[in-house]
């Protein structure tokens, strides 16, 4: 099932208060969508909604902590009431933590699992039945190339994003005959606030380097948002907007053990020197 913009799409975007979530809302507005912009930061969601309205599209802001199932259930109910149904769900809200596996406290594992994985699970669980009932819909789950490549010192982030990819793959097979499409977005580096708002342990040199790579990326949030929506419109399951993530994933699939023993350490060495 592909996503059609031939008529106004009714969309819900989580993590819409800034970064990629805001870029997705603005790109949806350029395509004529009606939007519910949800974020734990209501002020940020309201700012996004105001920007959408300036582009001539209707938008509603809602506060939502995606780590809490009742909050996502309330969002689903509100979106159905406000929009008359939901054609597109974008599970975008996410956080980050980094450091060696043995340096990350349990509370940070629970924190990131709640937002990055359970938040996506709740979204799919509570919105997909509506889509089944109307016989159509599309889900974009925002994961990361980290979920495909699993680089060192990012275990909690890798685990949650790998889980989102597995969930998306499962849903794509389950929903293929129900008129519901699934796309999983797996970008690498682009400028967001996720590193600044993250919880980092051990040396902060890697976080600093990641921040620099985010700034240097040729594809930033607006281009990633456009890529994601184009992928959904084409009925694509895996959406990898950045070339580095795409070719590293291909290398891993060709030679998984060599990838982790030789290729990834070599790439990380170049990454560190940069």
Commentary on this structure:
With 274 residues, the chain is α/β, with parallel strands linked by helices. It has one domain: Rossmann fold, CATH 3.40.50.720. It is built from 10 helices and 9 strands. Strands 3-2-1-4-6-7-9 form a 7-stranded parallel beta sheet, sandwiched between helices. Strands 5-8 form a two-stranded parallel ribbon. The radius of gyration is 18 Å and the shape is globular. The model has no long low-confidence stretch (mean pLDDT 89).
How many alpha or pi helices? 10
Poorly predicted ranges (pLDDT <50, ≥5 residues)? none
Rg, please? Answer: 18 Å
CATH class (first level) name: Alpha Beta
> Helix- and strand-based class?
alpha/beta
**SSE order:** EHEHEHEEHEHHEEHHEHH
**Corresponding CATH superfamily:** NAD(P)-binding Rossmann-like Domain
Helical percent range? Answer: 40-55%
Sequence of strands across the biggest β-sheet: 3-2-1-4-6-7-9
CATH domain fold name = Rossmann fold
How large a portion of the residues is in β-strands, by DSSP E?
5-15%
Number of domains: 1
What overall form do the CA principal axes indicate?
Answer: globular
Question: What is the mean pLDDT?
Answer: 89
- The CATH architecture assignment turns out to be 3-Layer(aba) Sandwich
- End-to-end separation in angstroms reads 42 Å
Q: Let me know the number of strands.
A: 9
The biggest sheet amounts to: 7 strands, parallel
């Amino acid at each position: 099932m592909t996503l059609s913009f031939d008529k106004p799409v009714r969309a819900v975007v989580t993590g819409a208060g800034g970064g990629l979530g805001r870029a997705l809302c603005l790109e949806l507005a350029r395509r004529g969508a009606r939007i519910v912009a949800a974020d734990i930061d209501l002020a940020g969601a309201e700012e996004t909604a105001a920007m959408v309205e300036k582009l001539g599209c209707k938008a509603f802001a809602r506060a939502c902590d995606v780590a809490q199932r009742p909050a996502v259930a309330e969002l689903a109910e509100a979106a159905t009431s406000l929009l008359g149904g939901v054609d597109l769900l974008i599970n975008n809200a996410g956080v980050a933590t980094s450091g060696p596996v043995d340096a990350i406290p349990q509370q940070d594992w629970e924190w990131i699992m709640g937002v990055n994985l359970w938040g996506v699970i709740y979204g799919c669980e509570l919105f997909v039945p509506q889509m089944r009932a109307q016989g159509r819909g599309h889900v974009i789950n925002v994961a990361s190339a980290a979920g495909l490549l699993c680089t060192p010192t990012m275990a909690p982030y890798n685990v949650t994003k790998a889980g989102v990819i597995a969930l998306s793959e499962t849903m794509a097979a389950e929903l293929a005959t129900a008129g519901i499409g699934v796309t999983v977005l797996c970008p690498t580096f682009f400028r967001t606030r996720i590193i600044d708002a993250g919880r980092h342990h051990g040396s902060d040199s890697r976080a600093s380097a990641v921040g620099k790579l985010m700034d240097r990326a040729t594809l930033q949030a607006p281009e990633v948002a456009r890529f994601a929506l184009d992928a959904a419109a084409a009925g694509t399951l895996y959406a990898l907007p950045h070339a580095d993530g795409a070719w590293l994933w291909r290398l891993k699939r060709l030679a998984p053990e060599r990838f982790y023993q030789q290729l990834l350490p070599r790439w990380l060495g170049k990454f560190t020197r940069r």
